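Extended Data, panel c. Modelled sequence:
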Amino acid sequence: MKLDTPRLDPLPVEEMSEEVRAPFGDGPILNIFRTLAHHPKLMKRWLVFGNHVLAKSSLSPRDREIAILRIGWLCGSEYEWGQHVLIGRRSGLSDEEIERIAEGPDAEGWGDVERAILRATDELHADAFISDETWAELERHYDVEQRIDLVFAVGQYNLVSMALNTLGVQRDSDLPRFPKR
């Protein structure tokens, strides 16, 4: 279900504390952050974990974005999808690959690594567990830290998608929409 109006209006930047604004410098502050600014203590701590997943993960940016886009799609979070279409493009994903992520692991054109990422994401979303078969495939391509980072990336963006959907965070105006299916 998608909310057409926010349950919590994003705080105007001038109403956000300096501590909450500081990580964003002079740049624009996205609706997700302006919404989470209603709970500054949570936001501050969540940003540390989110920064690991997004910027310090042992996964390649491309692989990370495949997982994030897939979980955003599975959760029906158009905000998350749109935000990570932009990041995915900067991380080396083509528009054709991004659209194919919505089709899942059995779509034509994926290599073994991409198929394993997508299958693991689907399994985590459906069962909160990666099957032995998929885990074995991930072991062929990833070391221990990368496999752990994949699980935490999917979990982080599942959480973010739930928050975005439930709080009714509206897409920032420049974000791409879901592909037509």
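The chain is about 60% helix and 0% strand. This feature is highlighted in the accompanying rendering.
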